[in-house]
Structures are given as C-alpha cells and as structure tokens.
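Ticket #4471: structure output looks truncated?

Reporter: J.K.
Steps to reproduce: submitted the chain below (436 residues) through the standard prediction queue, then opened the result file.
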Amino acid sequence: MKVRVIGGGLAGAEAAYALLTRGFEVEMYEMRPDKMSPAHKTGSLAELVCSNSLKSEILSTASGTLKEEMKLFGSVILMAADKARVPCGGALGVQREVFSAEVERILSSFEGFTLHRGEVTSIEPDIPQVIATGPLTSEAMAAAIKGVTGEDYLNFFDAAAPIVAADSIDYDKAFFASRYQKGDVDYLNAPMNKEEYLAFYDALTHAERARQEVAGNYFEGCMPIEVMAEGGVDTLRFGPLRPVGLRHPETGEKYYAVLQLRKENVAGDLYNLVGFQTGLTFPEQRRVFGLIPALRDAEFVRYGVMHRNTFVNAPKVLDGEFRVKGRENLYIAGQLSGVEGYMESAMSGMIAGLSLAARLRGKEFPLLPATTIMGSLTRYISTENASFQPMNANFGVLPPLEKRIRDKLARKSAYAQRAIDDMTSYAADYERALKE
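Returned output as attached by the reporter:
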C-alpha cells in the first residue's frame, strides 16, 4: 500500500522511514528546489536551517532521553546524524551537507521509496498521508490545510544564528575551553571586558532590524539576541554571553561576558555563533557583532535570518497520534503540528508514521506512555489549551516520580530511566502487535 508524505524535512523523513521499514511504499513530495522557502538554501532533504546541533545526547537530559526513546523504533535522523557528527561537547552536532545527504541515501535505498520534486497545493481526501510541510508551509498548502481543519493558524517568529569563517577569527582574542574545565574542549570562546560588553550592548539595542512589527511574538527557545537584550543590560550575561565557569586556560583570567562559538563542520573552517539568532539587517550584524574583539574582522559566511513560523492550533486540530480529528488517515507532523525543536519535529513524524502503519494494518495505536518524553509531548499538543504555544522536550511535563528525589541530577536520571524502561516495553508491544 502506498502512503503519501508531503514535505522532506526532519518530520517527513522520519515518517517515511517508519512506514518504509514496516513494509509500506512511500511517495514523498518536496517542493524544494523548484520552490524555495524564505529560510532554506538548498533542495536537500532534512536541511537544517537554524543550528547544526540536535541538542544533548546526555541521558539525564530530556533531549538525551528523547533520542533514546526514538532509537527504540529506529530513527533515520539519528542514524544520519551519527554519520555526520562533529565535535559538540555533550550535544549531537552534525555537518549539515553530510547529514542531509545521508538521510536521502537511507530513504532512497528502499525500493518502495519515490521522491517527487514540486509543490503540492491540495490534499487528496482518500490517500493515507502525512503532511510535514514545516513552519514555512507555502500559501497554497496552508490554505489547503486550513480548508481541511477549519481552524485558524497561530504563528511566531523564529531566527537563525550567523556563521563565520574560522580563519577570519582573531585567535589572540579568543581561547578554547570548556565551562568549568569539564568535558571535551569543543567551544571557542570570544571574551569581552566590561567596557567592550557595554559598547556591544548599546550598539545591539540600537541596531536596525530587518523587521520591526513582530516584537513580543517570538518563541523563547530561539529568541533573537536583540530581543533578548531588551530584558536589561545584564540579560545576555545570564544567557548566551554567560561568563561563569569560563577562564583563560593559560592566564586564569575571568571575563565580563563570553560568546561561545561552535564548529559548524568537521573540517572546522566554519563557526556558529551560539545563541546569536538574530533578525538584524545584514550590515548591522557585521557592524554590531564585529564589536566583539575576536570577531572584529570576521567574515560572515551566513548572516542570521528571521522568518515566520506557522503552526496549527493543535489541541483543536490533532489527537495524540498527530492525526487530524475526524480524518482517519490524515496526519500533520513537524513544527507545523505545534512541537518545537529539531528532534521534537522528527519525533512527531515518527509517531505519525508508526500510527499510520498500525492503522493501515487494522491495529490500534495505544497512546504512548505519559512517563516518556514522546508520550508527554503527544499529550501536550492534544490537550485543550487556550494559550497553546509550541513545546520542547522537557522533564517538567512528566508525571512526578513515585519516590521523591532531592538531588537534581539523580532526579533527572530517574525520570530518564523510567521513560526508557516504559518506552522499551511499549515499543516491543507495538512491533509484536504489528506482526500478528
């Protein structure tokens, strides 16, 4: 049986893989490169348009736990990321081009996979399908989805950080070190003294923005640096410019503020400005960020961009399987569904694919355990909420542990272990039921 997946991003790729590995044929439709979005640069599947980090792999974090849960079902995103990884401390960082190529290679290795290039502008009523067109869904497809769901969209603005050439950084004014000297030294630190920081802050808060009409409507997890700075002169020093735990490894010198830069690729010839998502005009980015001593003569390979992200009012539109209410075989996944983050988007595509695979075999798809990250996020997006906003993976939405644990790390580890144990049992039951 053929299933249609509309959208070749992380969610679409994961939905396709879940279906392909369970015996279904998949026709994927991706409008790029025939029609580009405001943020994408290529026609590659699973293109990463913001950071090149898929967040923490550490099990005692919600992000690390989510990855372990997804591995139990088989994850094309995590398999590709492992092939494309770059040093990123405790996080899973990837080289974008290698990552995208590996996702496409894996999907294309299935005889039942067909990739169509071109925009889809309507939703066929009788075809099992997963819509994963992303937060930058085209106007035509947005209208088609609205026609099916009957619900208005909500929206917020997202931003991506700049990338600079490694050989344009002034290494006499930067140093490699990990915070508190823990773990691998995967970050380059660009420090500022108080005078330099205040000059930078003043320039940032008075800089020209590419768009002015959207203040107050950003998603906190990817808030532009200039908007964050509106919280006060010290806001950045408690955020992306936090100097705590960072000293010069040779002199022991402490700093007033420190920007961290992360390798963008394996070669190490590109660096991403961590936490510096921005909507400033390109000339202003060069001027303002150039006030950081180590970046005074930096060559910007990619400037930060800001773009409009769109998502459905999930509690009214979707159930706990990312299935459109009232439509048996129609699913919406990815950021369009009301989850936020690379792996969270991939997770929603996976769940949609798993659910559709089960239902096409005439099986039920029981709700995922509430004690898991995957289960808690599905409940979040499908539970009535008058002020619904996108949600990342976090332990805060899980039910409390049976036994109270005071130590913070031990408590997180207990949440993680419970989630993995419960999801292991669920995954085994799912695969067994599918084969019966």
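Triage note (M.O.): checked the attachment and the full token line is present. The chain has a mean pLDDT of 93.
Status: closed, working as intended.
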